[in-house]
Amino acid sequence: MPLSRRALAAASLALVLPLSACGSGDGGGSTDASGKVEGDITFQTWNLRANFTPYFEGLIADFEKKYPGTHVKWVDQPAEGYPDKLSADAAGGTLPDVVNVSPDLVAPLAKAGLAMDLDKAAGAYRSEYLAGAWASHQVPGMSGTYAFPWYLNTGPLFYNKALFTQAGLDPDQPPKTYDELFSDALRMARKSGGEVATLANVPTIEDFGRYGVTLMNKQGTAFAFNDAKGVELLTRYKKLYDARALDPQALTATPESSGKKFLTGAVAMNPGSALDLGNFKKNAPGLYRNIGITDQITSTGHVNMYVMGVMVNARTRHTPAAVAFAHFVTDARNQMSFARKVAIFPSTSGSLNDPYFTKEDGTDETRVRVAAAKSLKSAVNYTPVLFSDQMKTALRNEVAKALQGRESPRQALDNAVDAADRLLRQS
């Protein structure tokens, strides 16, 4: 599905999916993909039919032409309720052969033995993909990789040059480090009498990752974002909140509400993508004339990426065909074709060196695309695969208590980690 509308994470899937769940077909379970590519398989996507029917129909026709003994049935599910649909299919033995997933959705399926280990079934293809993208569908505590990486997304930080100028800041020198960000934010709040905040969102798990916080132990058995560096980041956000350098409504903000704040000039910086530039041009021409574009701020040198994947059902009766089709969907040629139809990026090695992602033409849209493509080469998915929506809610609630002064940053993060660990043990 489009990454700007990622569905709720797989908490419900993990809770109701029995470990004894069976996939489609009575036999199967083999990771041997070396046999003849033939048979009927089903391919399920996630809210893509409305906008991309010609693309997928052509993709399937090309595959069936390449492998005459195959037939691919394409089904598409709506965004809402997708985790529940996967859960029902997994429990009922009707999981399709090839399934569009995100890392958080593949984790419970892998634990239930329903996601094929592609390190075993398709390890020869591993070098075709960016290392960070291939690793994104690995599950802590388990060996193996459980989906082919498909399309990626990331974006820059947009900032309002006019607001920077009004605060006495250089509009052509946006903050590049966290020290600069927090310093500039406090200055802007002070200069505007608390009327202009720099940021509109409380820190999420991705923000802790970008800051260099250790999010989870290597065994995948416990979370760790309440370490000294995590407490440091939340303490700095508390200082911003008290100074109104963090928008007062950040505690209840959504990406949509934060975007509106940025459009109206109430917030000076906001993350986004190339898709946002058209919105600025149409709905806020004054902002568009003053738009600044800069890189995500990190302490690690690696920006955050969002990734979609294509999983093979471990119980498929047609392993060679299912693996071949999942690879076909995500190979360099087809990913590049898809990327030219929508503002996403291929996860295949070398694709981001294509002139489409490297050559600027003077437009802001291309500038954003080129910058994002460059950063994706070494990007990582900071959100732990096992970090469910319930865990995200627990973290958000505790962060809110810290910002409001109801708990110390240390206590808030300790509570959030305790809640996340408890939910992890229940999954």
TrEMBL record:
* Keyword NAD (UniProt): no
UniProtKB keywords: Cell membrane, Lipoprotein, Membrane, Palmitate, Signal
Q: What name does the UniProt record give this protein?
A: Solute-binding protein
Name the source organism: Streptomyces filipinensis
> Known InterPro entries for this protein?
Bact_solute-bd_prot1, SBP
Signal peptide positions are 1-21
Q: What is the lineage of its organism?
A: Bacteria, Bacillati, Actinomycetota, Actinomycetes, Kitasatosporales
